């Protein structure tokens, strides 16, 4: 089975982060992961990594509703950062609002919109489409 090298989780919910990391380990989804608790923290850490080309995440699991900088604000800032590598973003949210689904389609980097919780089947599907 294929494996993601570096996965990035951007979510403020510690229970979701813990469960997703555990699930990633159990399914051997990735070699390593980065975790950020809001969009601003993620941008501040990812910007220099993306610009240097070092240890760039292959995929990002992005929550929408977070304090400080939400997922939409993160996306708007993220797409402005030059990168030599394409990073696949999956929005992972509890929001079932149709306007969120439509808004996500406006971002070319967003591969899919996943309703929480993440399941082993979803992780396998992500690997297969990667």
Automatic annotation (TrEMBL):
Record keyword Iron-sulfur present: no
Residue ranges constituting the Response regulatory domain according to the UniProt record: 6-130
Modified residues (4-aspartylphosphate): 63
The keyword Phosphoprotein is assigned to this record: yes
BP GO terms, sorted: phosphorelay signal transduction system
Highest taxon of the lineage: Bacteria
Gene3D superfamilies: 3.40.50.2300
Keywords from the UniProt entry: Phosphoprotein
SUPFAM superfamilies the UniProt entry points to: CheY-like (SSF52172)
PANTHER family per UniProt: RESPONSE REGULATOR RCP1, RESPONSE REGULATOR RCP1-RELATED
Protein name: Response regulator
Source organism (scientific name): Panacibacter microcysteis
């Amino acid at each position: 089975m294929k494996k993601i090298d570096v996965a990035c989780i951007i979510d403020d919910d510690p229970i979701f982060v813990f469960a997703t990391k555990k699930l990633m380990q159990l399914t051997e989804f990735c070699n390593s992961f980065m975790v950020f608790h809001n969009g601003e923290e993620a941008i501040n850490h990812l910007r220099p990594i993306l610009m240097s080309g070092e240890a760039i995440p292959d995929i990002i699991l992005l929550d929408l509703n977070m304090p400080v900088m939400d997922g939409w604000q993160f996306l708007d800032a993220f797409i402005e950062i030059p990168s030599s590598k394409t990073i696949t973003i999956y929005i992972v949210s509890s929001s079932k609002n149709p306007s969120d689904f439509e808004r996500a389609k406006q971002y070319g980097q967003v591969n899919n919109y996943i309703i929480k919780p993440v399941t082993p089947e979803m992780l396998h599907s992500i690997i297969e489409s990667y």
